[in-house]
Specification:
This protein is an all-alpha fold. It has 25 helices and no strands. The chain folds into two domains: about 375 residues, Sodium/glucose cotransporter (Up-down Bundle); about 70 residues. It is found in: Cell membrane.
Length: about 625
């Protein structure tokens, strides 16, 4: 333990002493480093605490699923910061600064996806007592489908973890002077330490701490900028005059980057792919004490998402309102939009030591929560989907403690892999769009195959395989086409920036004019075939497009391979009778039974009733015995 602490101290010393030159003179003070260090220290302490507390009774279920004993409230907070934390803190304000507030419509997607997940997917997964969500695919289709989907998930997770390690480190390096790779490595190292020691329980409770830090950091930025500007209304007015306050873009053109339809509808499919099919999320549902608590965790998660994203959007309004006539990018103080918030915070709190450190702590809290979630989830699927079946096939079995140590070794391994893959994200552009694109690429086949399994008993293994391949092909095709033929400027909705109140040097002005001219030449001279308009669809539609293609192809292939003939043999536990939901209670019983498609849901109901009756009888007998005593 002491050797680990010494290494941690040495690593942190490297982070705070290795600096790089930047064009912005304000950097961290001693107080900032102290605040930042306290947050990292507390995250590590939580890992040590749960490692010590559960040292005598920890098995793989305790380590990877927190013993299925978690309350819905910490699980909900953990869900909030698992995916959109660092991306939200840096990317969302930059989005508002450059494109306005249309991203607010993503709340529609969050809420709709949360409700659908809670009512359709979670009941099926929870009743199956899964350790890995991909076990469901083996029960429903075939082991080959399970392995293929697990591999897709792991590639997605490694790439996404790379984004949330590298991009915040790059932004903070350019503005605060924190060494780029020391910052990136420290993020991975801290995650490895507390995730390895305390397992999922430590990850969840550390996420709770990090959610609080994120909220405090964003609130501090909003309050301070409002005070400096003479009130939040002044910042809002500046943003409104600059065209940033816009919630009513109802243009139905799918090429529009952000509109009510692209963001509101597209984000439903994107978030369903996250909440309903992603091991990192489902692993948290399965850690709850009951199905009711699992559903609660999803809905309370939406409240947390609403609060954190609302604060990030308001911080973006404050960011533009503060620099509405003096753009830091034009001045050359920052080079990327993702660097705006760190620059803003250092400028805003230049006379308040410790506050920039609090904001940086909130950014790193986001990175820590995401990476710890990723590596524990990948350790779980590797153990459950690969190692245990292989060992069982060879006739090998180990004690539970051995599997627990294997899980810890996998957490360390995947933590190192995520650090190594971090450098790839430098080519993906802004972190908000990059993260949504990466999640969309893998989200489409994942959402396709799980939806086929849960809602379509006529779909067979061949149909599921065709759905995965077609959904993956469709999303990759559009993604690559979008890179080769970027959308035209009229669809990007990028708003103008002003430097009217800044003193820009003559050389800087000339350089900006030359760059602008070169960009225009590239746009006007590059040939654009007709298919380029199709590639220009909003990146929010990527998951939805792949999902629709995958579902259509899968059902056609299932019908051609006679999958409908075997629908009656599908276990009722693996299918959700959607028309039995209270929402459709007005429909005739005959019609609802017809929608079972031959699946024996009535037998499942009888079995559940018998189990409930047996449980009630046992409770009565226990009460009678207690009264007699």
């Amino acid at each position: 333990m002491f050797s680990v602490l010494r290494r941690l101290r040495t690593l942190f010393y490297v982070v705070i002493t290795t600096r790089m030159d930047t064009s912005f003179s304000r950097t961290f003070s001693a107080a900032d480093y102290a605040v930042f260090a306290v947050m990292l220290f507390l995250s590590t302490v939580i890992g040590f605490y749960y490692a010590f507390k559960d040292r005598k009774r920890q098995n793989t279920e305790d380590y990877l699923l927190a013993g299925r004993s978690m309350s819905p409230y910490p699980v909900a907070l953990s869900l909030c910061v698992s995916f959109l934390s660092a991306v939200t803190v840096l990317g969302t304000p930059a989005e508002v600064y450059a494109y306005g507030t249309m991203y607010t419509w993503s709340f529609v997607g969050y809420f709709t996806a949360a409700v659908i997940t809670a009512e359709i997917y979670i009941p099926v997964f929870y009743s199956a007592k899964l350790s890995s969500v991909y076990q469901y695919l083996e029960y429903r289709f075939h082991r080959g489908i399970r392995i293929l989907v697990t591999l897709i998930y792991m590639v997605q997770t490694v790439l996404y973890a790379g984004i949330v390690i590298y991009a915040p480190a790059l932004a903070l390096n350019a503005v605060t002077g924190l060494n780029l790779w020391a910052a990136a490595v420290s993020t991975g190292a801290i995650c490895i330490i507390y995730s390895t020691l305390g397992g999922l329980k430590a990850v969840i409770w550390t996420d709770v701490l990090q959610a609080v830090v994120i909220v405090v950091g964003l609130v501090a930025v909003i309050i301070k900028s409002s005070v400096n500007a003479g009130g939040i209304e002044n910042l809002w007015r500046n943003a409104e005059e600059g065209g940033r306050i816009d919630f009513l873009k109802f243009d139905t053109d799918p090429r529009i980057r952000h509109s009510v339809w692209t963001v509101g509808v597209g984000s439903i499919f994107l978030n369903m792919a996250l909440y309903a099919t992603n091991q990192a999320q489902v692993q948290r549902y399965l850690s709850c004490r009951s199905l009711k608590d699992a559903k609660k965790s999803v809905m309370f998660n939406f409240l947390g998402i609403f609060v954190i994203n609302s604060l990030a959007l308001l911080a973006g309004v404050a960011l533009y309102g503060y620099y509405h006539n003096c753009d830091p990018i034009t001045l050359g103080h920052v080079k990327r939009g993702d660097q705006l918030m760190p620059y803003f915070v250092l400028d805003l709190f230049r006379h308040n030591p410790g506050m920039p450190g609090l904001f940086v702590a909130s950014v790193y809290s986001g990175s820590l929560s995401t990476v710890s979630t990723a590596i524990t989830a990948m350790a779980s699927v590797t153990l459950q989907d690969f190692l245990k079946p292989i060992l069982s096939w060879k006739g090998l079995t180990f004690k539970e403690m051995t599997y627990t140590w294997i899980s810890k070794g996998l957490v360390v391994f995947y933590g190192l892999i995520c650090i190594l893959f971090a450098y790839l994200t430098s080519q993906l552009g802004g972190i908000l769009q990059a993260s949504i694109s990466v999640l969309g690429l893998a989200g489409a086949p994942l959402l396709t195959v799980f939806t086929l399994g849960v809602l379509f008993p006529c779909c067979n293994t061949w149909g599921a395989l065709a759905g995965i391949i077609s959904a993956s092909t469709a999303t990759v095709w559009v993604f690559v086409g979008r890179i080769i033929y970027p959308p035209e400027a009229e669809f990007n909705n990028r708003l103008s920036l002003s430097d009217s109140a800044c003193l820009v040097s003559e050389n800087t002005t000339l350089e900006l004019m030359q760059n602008s001219t070169q960009v225009m030449e590239n746009v006007t001279t590059a040939p654009r075939p007709p298919i380029a308009d199709f590639y220009s669809m909003s990146y929010f539609y990527l998951t939805a497009f792949g999902f629709l293609v995958g579902i259509t192809v899968a059902l056609i292939v299932s019908f051609m391979t006679c999958g409908h003939r075997n629908r009656k043999n599908v276990s009722a536990k693996l299918i959700h009778p959607i028309f039995d939901h209270a929402l459709f209670s007005c429909l005739p019983d005959r019609f609802r039974k017809l929608m079972w498609c031959g699946v024996a849901h009535d037998e499942k109901k009888k079995q559940n009733n018998n189990n409930n009756q047996r449980r009630d009888e046992e409770i009565v007998l226990n009460m009678r015995d207690t009264s007699l005593q």
